[in-house]
Design a protein that fits this description.
6-stranded mixed β-sheet, about 45% helix, 5-stranded parallel β-sheet, Rossmann fold, alpha/beta, binds 6-O-phosphono-beta-D-fructofuranose
C-alpha cells in the first residue's frame, strides 16, 4: 500500500466511534448532509431515487478522511479510465465497457454498442411482428451474469404484462429445465442461448436438451427457434444458429455487467423495447452522476466509503440487502454475483496480497418476509451487519393502500429500531428483551419502481462495486476464482485426475468413481 493510502487509513482508524443516536442528537443537518438524490426525466416523467446514508456511522471527519483515501487511491484517474474504455481489467488486458452500452464511453465503443443494440431492436420487433411465427414462450438459457440480470429484470418489469411468458433456466440440474418445458408449448417456444463464451458447460448442455425437447415436440428445425446472445458469434454459428439470429455483444462487456447488451434480449422481448430502453436511460443518469461528481457527493462512492468503513474498521463480514418490494425479490441474488464475484479477491491489481478484508458476504431477502425469519439476528445477534433497505414510494399493487402503507412503515421502522435499540420488558431490565441498537442501515427510496429506476438501481450498485475496488486497489473485472472448481469437474468427467480420499469415496458412492 502506498504511503498516502496508509496515512489515510491511519487517519480513518484513529477517528472516534460515536453512537448513531449521538451523531443524530448533535447534528440537525445530518439527514440532509448524508442524503442525496439521483434524478432523471423532465416534467411528468421526472423521477429519481433518494439515497439516505444518515443512519450509518459516517461523520464529517470520516468523510474528509475517506475523500483523502479516494485521492490516495487515484479514484478520479481510475474512473476516467473506466469511462474512456482503457484496459482497466489489467489481469485480462481489456476494458470494462458496460457504460458504453448506455451511451458513456469512448466514441468508437458507444457507436459499436449502438449498432449492436439496433440489430437487437430489429430482431425483437420482427419477432413481435410474427417473423418467427407465433411466439408465446421464451426459454432463456444462461448462467451467472448471463442469467441473473435477465431473470431479475423480467421478474421486476413484467408482472402486469408480458408479451411472452419467459422462463430463465440456469442450473445444470435437469429439474430446472423440466420445469420450464412443462410450462411451455414447443410449437410456440423460442430458446435464447445466452453465453458470453458460448462454451459454458451448464448452458451448452441445457441448450442441447432444449433442442431435443423441441425436436421431440414436433419442431422440425429446432436450431431455427434459437436466438444466440454472445460475444463469440462464430461459435454460436458453428453450434447451428443462423447468423441472422445471433445477437453479438462486445468482448469488453463483462458477464455480470452484461444486462445492457444483447444479454438483455428477454427483457426487450417480454417487457417491450421501450422498457428496455428506459432501463438503459435510468442507468445512464447514474453514469452521468458517477462520472461527473467528485468526492463524498458522489453517491456510489459515498456508499463505498461506508462499505469500506464497516468491513475494515468495524470488522463486519457481511452486508445485508432487503428490498421492501416483491418485484425486487431477485435483487439480492443479482447483487451477490455483482459484488462477490467482482470484489471477492485476495490480491491487488499489482498481484500483491491485500492488506485487509475485501468484499463482505452479500446476503438478503424481501421485506416484510425477512423480518419474520432473519431479523432476529440483525437486532440481537452478536454480529454487526450493515443493512440496505430498498423501497418504492409508489405502490406496485392496486389493492387497498393499507398494504403499501404497512410495507413502507415496516421498512422505515426496522431502520429506526436497529439504530435506536431499547428494552422491551416492563421494567426495562430483562437482558433477553434488550436491543443494543447502534446498528447501521442505509435506505434507498425510489419514487417508483419502473424500468428506468431498475436500471438506475443496478448501475448505482455497479459503480459502488467499482468504487470499493478502487479504494481497495483490486481489479473487480476478473473472476479467476471460479476456474479451479470448473477444471476439477472437467477432470472428474474425463477420468483424468487423482483426487483426495473423501472425493474418491463420494464419487464411488454415487456410481461415478
Ligand atoms: O463462472 C463464472 C462466469 O464466468 C461468470 O462470470 C459468467 O457470468 C458466467 O460464468 C457465465 O459465462 P458465459 O456467459 O460465458 O456462459
Amino acid at each position: 500500500m502506498s504511503d498516502s493510502r496508509t496515512a489515510a487509513w491511519d487517519q480513518i482508524e484513529a477517528l472516534p466511534q460515536a453512537s448513531l443516536s449521538d451523531l443524530f442528537a448533535g447534528d440537525d443537518a445530518r439527514v440532509d448532509r448524508l442524503s442525496g438524490r439521483i434524478d432523471w426525466g423532465e416534467g411528468e416523467d421526472a423521477a429519481g431515487i433518494r439515497f439516505d446514508w444518515s443512519k450509518t456511522h459516517l461523520t464529517a471527519d470520516l468523510l474528509d478522511a475517506f475523500d483523502g483515501l479516494a485521492e490516495a487511491s487515484d479514484f478520479a484517474a481510475r474512473r476516467a479510465e473506466l469511462f474512456a474504455g482503457e484496459p482497466i481489467n489489467v489481469t485480462e488486458g481489456r476494458a470494462a465497457e458496460h457504460t458504453a452500452q448506455r451511451g458513456s464511453g469512448s466514441e468508437a465503443s458507444v457507436e459499436e454498442a449502438d449498432a449492436l443494440r439496433t440489430r437487437m431492436q430489429m430482431l425483437v420487433e420482427a419477432i413481435r411482428e410474427g417473423a418467427l411465427g407465433d411466439v408465446n414462450h421464451l426459454i432463456h438459457i444462461g448462467i451467472g451474469g448471463s442469467a441473473l440480470g435477465p431473470d431479475l429484470a423480467v421478474d421486476a418489469l413484467t408482472r402486469d404484462l408480458a408479451y411472452v411468458d419467459c422462463h430463465v433456466v440456469s442450473n445444470i440440474d435437469g429439474v430446472a429445465l423440466e420445469e420450464a418445458f412443462a410450462a411451455c408449448d414447443p410449437a410456440t417456444t423460442l430458446v435464447a442461448v445466452a453465453s458470453k463464451t458460448f462454451t459454458t458447460i451448464e448452458t451448452m448442455t441445457n441448450a442441447e436438451s432444449a433442442m431435443r425437447w423441441l425436436r421431440e415436440g414436433g419442431v422440425s428445425d429446432p436450431h431455427g427457434r434459437v436466438i444466440a446472445l454472445t460475444a463469440n458469434p462464430e461459435r454460436a454459428v458453428e453450434w447451428g444458429v443462423d447468423e441472422t439470429r445471433v445477437l453479438p455483444f462486445m468482448e469488453s462487456v463483462g458477464g455480470r455487467y452484461s444486462l445492457w447488451s444483447s444479454i438483455g434480449f428477454p427483457v426487450a422481448l417480454a417487457a417491450g423495447w421501450d422498457e428496455f430502453a428506459a432501463m438503459l436511460e435510468g442507468a445512464a443518469a447514474v453514469d452521468a452522476h458517477f462520472r461527473d461528481t467528485d468526492g463524498r457527493d458522489n453517491l456510489p462512492l459515498r456508499a463505498a466509503f461506508a462499505d469500506q468503513y464497516y468491513a475494515r474498521v468495524r470488522g463486519c463480514q457481511t452486508r445485508a440487502v432487503f428490498a421492501y418490494d416483491e418485484r425486487l425479490a431477485l435483487f439480492p441474488s443479482y447483487l451477490q454475483q455483482l459484488e462477490m464475484e467482482s470484489n471477492g479477491k485476495r490480491v491487488t491489481s499489482n498481484g500483491e496480497p491485500v492488506d485487509g478484508p475485501t468484499a463482505p458476504i452479500t446476503w438478503g431477502g424481501v421485506g416484510t418476509d425477512a423480518q419474520h425469519a432473519v431479523f432476529q439476528l440483525l437486532h440481537q445477534g452478536t454480529h454487526m451487519v450493515p443493512v440496505d433497505f430498498i423501497a418504492s414510494i409508489a405502490p406496485g399493487d392496486a389493492l387497498d393502500p393499507a398494504h403499501h402503507a404497512i410495507l413502507l412503515t415496516n421498512c422505515f421502522a426496522q431502520g429506526a429500531a436497529l439504530m435506536a435499540g431499547g428494552n422491551m420488558s416492563a421494567d426495562g431490565k430483562d437482558p433477553a428483551r434488550e436491543f443494543p441498537g447502534n446498528r447501521p442501515s442505509a435506505t434507498i427510496l425510489c419514487d417508483d419502481l419502473d424500468a428506468a429506476t431498475l436500471g438506475a438501481l443496478i448501475a448505482f450498485h455497479e459503480h459502488r462495486t467499482f468504487a470499493n475496488a478502487v479504494l481497495m486497489g483490486i481489479n473487480p473485472f476478473d473472476q479467476f476464482g471460479v476456474e479451479l472448481g470448473k477444471k476439477m469437474a472437467r477432470d472428474i468427467e474425463g477420468g483424468a485426475a487423482e483426487f483426495d480420499a473423501s472425493t474418491k469415496a463420494l464419487l464411488e458412492a454415487s456410481g461415478l468413481g
